Amino acid sequence: MNSSVSDPVYLSAAAQGRLIRDRKLSPVELMQSCLARIERWNPVLRAYITVCAESAMAEARIAEREIAAGRWRGLLHGLPFGVKDQLNTKGIKTTLGSRILADNVPDHDAAVIEKLKAAGAILIGKENLHEFGKGGTIDFPYGQPRNPWHLDHNPAGSSSGSGIAPACGFTSGSLGEDTGGSVRSPAAANGIVGLRPTFGRVSRWGGVMYGWTADTIGPLTRTVEDNALFLQAIAGHDARDPLSSTRPVPDYAAALTPGLKGLTLGVVREMTWPEGVHAEVAAAMKEAIKVLEGLGATVREVSLPRAKYAVPLQLLTSDSDIAAMMLKKWLRTRWHDFDVGTRTRLAAGCLIPAAVYHRAMRGRAVVRREVLQVLAGVDALLCPTNLNPPGRIDATKETVDSAEAMQRKVILRRISTYPFSMANVPALALPMGYSGKGLPLSLQIAGKPFAEDMVFRVAHAFEQATPWHDRHPALDKLAAAGT
After folding, report:
1. Residue 3 falls within a domain, yes or no?
2. Residues near 132 by Cβ (< 8 Å), separated by ≥ 6?
3. Lesser CB count within 10 Å: N end or C end of the chain?
4. How many domains does the chain contain in total?
5. Which domain holds residue 221?
6. Please, are residues 131 and 322 in contact by the beta-carbon 8 Å criterion?
7. Peptide bond before 158: cis, by omega within 30 degrees of 0?
C-alpha cells in the first residue's frame, strides 16, 4: 500500500480504519508513525511501561498482506491499541504498575485483548497506571505520568497512560479499567472520550480485578464514534466471567444519529453545582447545556441527594475488597515494595470491620436505587466529569489532614464519578472545553443500565456540534516552553 496521508496519528480510529480499508493508508506506516511518537515522547509523558515495537510491526505487515488479499476484518483491522497494564497479555509483562510484579509474564491474554486481536487490531504496548489500579500512587515505579496539555499537571488515574496515549497519537485507542472513575477521569484530564460500560457488559476475564464488585473495563478514544467502535468489539457474554451479562449487544454505530429532539436530559444538581465547583467548569457546563438544548433536547435539573455518600461507601467497600486480596498474598510479605500511598490505603482497608463493610454494601444499594429512580424519568443524566481542571502533580500528593481537606480533596474529587459506579450504569466522559490555562474540561453523560447506545447518541451529537475533539496537545511547543 502507498499512503496518501501525511500524518495519520491524530485521525479518528474510524477514519484510519476507512483509509486502510480503501488502501489509502498502510497499517505499516500508521504503526511506524505511532511508534516514532512513542519513542520521542514516552520518556517525557510515561504513558507506556512496555512497548511491543517488534511484534507490533510484524503484525502490521501481516495485516497489510491480509487486507491486500481481500481479507479485511473491519474498521479495527491494522489499527494499534494499548491496554492498561492491569490486563494480562500472553508472553508480555503485566506489572500492574508495581515493583512486586516487575517480572510477571502471563500465559494468556485477557478476553478483551482476544476480541480486539480477532478484530484485527494490534497491541502496541502496556500502559502506565497507579499501582494495582488503586489510585493514590506517590512514586510511580515506571515513571511519573504527565498531562500532555501541561507537563506539570496530573493526567489523572488510575488508567493514566491509557488516557495519555490516544490524546498524543500514540495509538488509535486504549483500554482502561474503571472502579470509581479510572477510565473517565483520565479521559477528562487528557481531553478525550472514555466510557465506563454497564457492569457486566464487558468480560473482565484475564484482567486483574481486585475490586470485584465494581471494576469494569472500558475504551478510551479520540472520538465518540471510535469509542462505540471499540466497545462493539469487546462487549458481550463470556462464560469465563461469571458476572458477564448474556444480554445481546446492539449495533452502537446505529445510535450515532444527528439531533436530540424528543430526549429529556437531567442535570444532577449535587454533582454539577456543589460548593467548590471551579468557575471555569461551571461556565463550560452552562454552555454545554445550551448546546444540548440547541440540538433539540429538553434539559432540566434533577436531584440525587445521596450522591455524596457514594464516595465513602465506595471507599469502605472497594478498598476493603482489594485489601482482602492483598493482605495474605503481599501486604504481609512485601510491605516495603509497595508505594507508600498504595500500602497506606490498603492497610486502612484491612482495618474496616466486617459489620461496617456489610452496612456500607447495603448503603450502596440505597444510592443505586436513587440513581435508577431518577434515570427512570429521563433519557440520560449530565454533570461535569470533574469539578476542577486537572491539578498540578505536586498538589495531588498532599495529605488529607482536616475535615475541610477531606471535603475538598476526597469528596469533591470523586462526587461526579462514584455515584454512577455505585449504580453500575454506563457513564461516558468527553471534552466540553478548555480552561484559561489550556487544560481540558469534560462533560459526563450517564444512562440506564445497558443503555450505552443512548449515551453514545447524546455524546456524539454534542461532540459534532462543538470543536473540542479537534484539538490536540502541542507537544513540541510544550516541551520548548519547559512546562
Report:
1. no
2. 86, 96, 97, 98, 208, 210, 322, 326, 342
3. C
4. 1
5. 13-481
6. no
7. yes
Compute CA distances 45 → 155, 165, 308, 399, 478, whole Å. Answer: 9, 9, 33, 25, 11
In one-letter notation, the amino acid at residue 468 is W
> 89: left (phi > 0), else alpha (psi -120 to 50), else beta?
beta
Q: H or E element: which one contains 256?
A: none
φ, ψ (nearest 5 deg) of residue 319: -60, -40
Q: What is the pLDDT of residue 222?
A: 98
Handedness of CA 412, 304, 426, 424 (dihedral sign): positive
86-124 burial by CB neighbour count: b if 16+ within 10 A, else e? Answer: bbbbeebebbbbbbbbeeeebeebbbbbbbbbebbbbbb
Q: What is the pLDDT of residues 297-327, one digit of tens each?
A: 999 999 999 999 999 999 999 999 999 888 8
In 308-449, which ranges are continuous DSSP H helix? Answer: 310-326, 340-350, 354-375, 403-405, 412-414, 418-423
Distances (CA, A) of 175 to 6, 81, 144, 256: 27, 8, 20, 21
Which residues are the active-site residues? 84, 158, 182
pTM above threshold 0.85: yes
**Contacts of 462 by beta carbon, 8 Å cutoff, 6+ apart:** 288, 291, 292, 295, 430, 432, 443, 445
Residue ranges in the chain modelled with pLDDT below 50 = 1-3
- Here the CATH number for the domain that contains residue 214 is 3.90.1300.10
Residue pair 139/133 in contact by the 8 Å Cβ criterion: no
